[in-house]
Amino acid sequence: MTSAMTAHLFAITYDAAQPVRLGRFWSGLLGRDMMEDPRDGVLVLPGADPEIRVRFVPFDEPKVVQNRMHFDLTSSSLEDQRQTVARALELGARHADIGQGPEIDHVVLADPEGNEFDVIAPGNNFLAGCGFVGALACDGSREVGYFWSRALGWPLVWDEGEETAIQSPNGGTKITWGGPPYLPNGGRDRVRFDLAPAAGVDWQVEVDRLLSLGATRVDAGQDGPGRVVLADPDGQEFSLRTPR
After folding, report:
1. What is the model's pTM?
2. Contact by Cβ (8 Å): 174, 137
């Protein structure tokens, strides 16, 4: 189990021009229920523990660069991979070109607002047992993998070269960082971690703990209702939900 003092990952949050439409896409693709978020936007709920909640919040600026985070969806067979791709396209996804070559065996898609995701071929040993959402693949350094391991209390399950990965002690989706070369920072991150303090932990105590681990405060003008915006050691923004 994670330490009682660590924050927990409330959701992976996406900025969305049409949060309900995007929520319906991911709800349909993942086979999960969707509900309105009492704070803002919509939530696609976990089907079972330890699946990760996905959140879509309104934001009216268009997407202009490749996201620094994307989901890797797993497949049990080539036919299963084909069916996932077909279902995604039917729901409103499209094929995406991020410079991948013809030799890759995964399929790169983008959701209706252009957020990239991969449908991985069967037989991927690294993602075996992780569930349908096998990984949240992030652009980032080895050091930031260490930071998030300490921030969430999730152990490192991969640490080779510049690549790291963490996973909840309960299993489920791995979060990975691929090391250099890094994508250019295109400004506000449209996909980010949304944290909440552990039960019984004072909100300011959690802010101070994250800062002591290497996080930084972002311009307070970006703080929104019910959240404060911080950045990890790579400069990737994340939110900590505030008390209401």
Report:
1. 0.93
2. no
**Euclidean distance between the first and the last CA atom of the chain, given in angstroms as a whole number:** 27
The token pair that represents 32 in the structure block:
């999960």
CB neighbourhood size of 204 (10 A):
12
Domain layout of the chain by residue ranges: 8-241
Query: How many CB atoms within 10 Å of residue 113?
Result: 20
CA distances from 185 to 64, 89, 153, 170, 191 (A): 11, 29, 27, 32, 13
Distance CA 118, CA 176 (A): 14
Cα distances from 146 to residues 110, 133, 150, 156, 190, in angstroms, run 29, 22, 6, 8, 23
Phi, psi of 133 (to 5 degrees): -85, 90
List pLDDT tens digits, range 122-170.
Answer: 999 999 999 999 999 999 999 999 999 999 999 999 999 999 999 999 9
d(CA 192, CA 16): 12
According to CATH, the superfamily of the domain at 8-241 is 2,3-Dihydroxybiphenyl 1,2-Dioxygenase, domain 1 (3.10.180.10)
- And the tokens for 218? 């972002």
